[in-house]
Amino acid sequence: MKLLEYEAKEIFSKYGIPVPKGVLIRAPEEVMEHLAEVGDAVVMKAQVDVGGRGKAGGVLFAGGTTAVETARELFSRDIKGVPVRSILVEERLLIEHEYYVSIAVDRSSRQPVILFADAGGVEIESTASAVRRVIVSPLLRNIPPFLMRELLGDAPKELAPTINSLYRVFQEKDAMLAEINPLVTTPQGVYAADAKLIIDDNALARQGIAVNRDLSAREREAEKHGFSYVELDGSIGVIGNGAGLTMSTLDLIEYYRGRAANFLDVGGGADQERVMHAVRLVASMPGVNVIVVNLLGGITRCDEVARGIIAADVSPTVIVRMAGTNEEEGRQLLAGNGYRMLESMDAAVRAAMEVAP
Ligand code: GDP
Ligand code: MN
What we know:
Radius of gyration: 28 Å
Distance between the termini: 38 Å
Largest sheet: 6 strands, antiparallel
Structural class: alpha+beta
CATH topology of the largest domain: Rossmann fold
Bound molecules: guanosine-5'-diphosphate, manganese (II) ion
CATH class of the largest domain: Alpha Beta
């Protein structure tokens, strides 16, 4: 997951990397109350997940009197199609020189690789400036001095502590990429003028980062119950146990030229409670008027499933195919409450197709 600049800078700062004084605003008027902290000459940076943001008009300079006007202008833009919802307002740095530094994982050696260039900034991709590259053992907590010298070349040694801190961020935050472009020198010292941090998606839980911050209410509900749930754009709701069986159900719907509304795998040992929540969840999707429940019993008891479906009491038609423990009991419960239970997945899907719009 790629963090926004201000989130990355918060982390960088905790690791001792100097970042400009700054505040995040969500409306143009908010800028006035912060000018005292940040200073009169500011840089306004759209917090959008877009590369080449500066060149696309996402970075503006402003003075005290023009601050609100400039913020309003920036909020009204969209940067490469992405609307600006927040702006990082920062003290303007007096940049003497811009450098580039990044740390990523080198695919072939499977070790961190650090890139450094004497000419950073927005033109980094087109500048002919030499990029130096060193590989560091992931077992080391710091970049060894001889490698740091090789990396920096003639660039000032005062950049070294920041690059070392960036390396620590990279390691401790399970990053795929940690980048500062530009890393700048100013009369006040070294600063990370920009910040980019991509965290390995597999490490988000360990890093305590909420996965996908834009979850819909239904997706949050699914996460709460531990369902694997994906919304699609069809009209036939699907509930299965096991990813394979659930996928097969989707495939079969596709085969009969139907369109599935979702993928929902309730997981193993689906009891009455879980089944009820799953059925209600899928039934709450707009446009769903039929739900195929396809479960194979084992630890899953068919009578429990039947009770869950009956308890859910939803308006879409629920068509059931299940097999396994207490199958007969489940069938009778369902039949007694007006639900159809079919012998095969194929029959269940075809029955759903008759009901689907
Ligand atoms: P990007 O386009 O998304 O990489 O945005 P950056 O945050 O890197 O900003 C783009 C460019 O704006 C930088 O390369 C700098 O040249 C310039 N810039 C950013 N902040 C400052 C600042 O505080 N002072 C000055 N003079 N230039 C800045
Ligand atoms: Mn940049």
